[in-house]
Model the fold of this input.
Amino acid sequence: MTATAVALRDVAKTYAGKGAPFQALANVSLDIAPGSFVSLLGPSGCGKSTLLRCIAGLDHPTGGAIEVDGGPVNAPPPGMGIVFQRDVLLDWLTVIRNVLLPAEIRRSDTDVAKRRAAELLNLIGLEGFEHRHPWELSGGMRQRVAICRALLLDPSLLLMDEPFGALDAMTRDELNLELQRLWLQTGQTVVFVTHSIPEAVFLSDRIVVMSRSPGRVVEVIDIDLPRPRPLSVRESPVFGAHVAHIRGIFEGFGMLRGRHNRDDE
Done:
């Protein structure tokens, strides 16, 4: 294992269209340690998802360089799993078939994949739902299936692009707990995109705060809260101090003034 799981060096991304070019990212440099949980946090349109797609090899920077496990990213790197805001499940396949899709695509050992899929579904609370179809499940359950699918081949790097953004607050809390528990068991490197300050503080080892577009790294914040973290940690002074500090950064952007709904942050 390399000392750095993901290395970003002066990454820039400009989109050229019919009108004036749009610069989404500028001079983003960052090192992500193996086994860490890192959140990308910033205002809408700051390039968080663009940066995640570049790390995933689904898009390509127009400047700078990205390495995963010491190798340049020119295509989706091996050992990567990804979860999007929409679960992207295939409604005509059962839950277990959806989870097994990566193994089928890569022609992995079927028996090993089935055992792993059953283990993951049990871990995430979906035992007994293996033969249901996605359209029979709630939004939170569908996202659990998507997480299982991303973890099936035991990726060393898990990328998550606002996976809980469309869920209600109680389901989001529940999945935050489940994700933390899974991460503590598996030890994967996680890069997590979110708009929610409390969610980022609850889940992360480090938070990368990004500016308005073009997205730049404004500050990297270490979260010094013991694990596992119960939801009640959000009422602690240390948690509150982290939230207040990050809120102050966003207020410096001219955001959040007069807003008090934590879920909107």
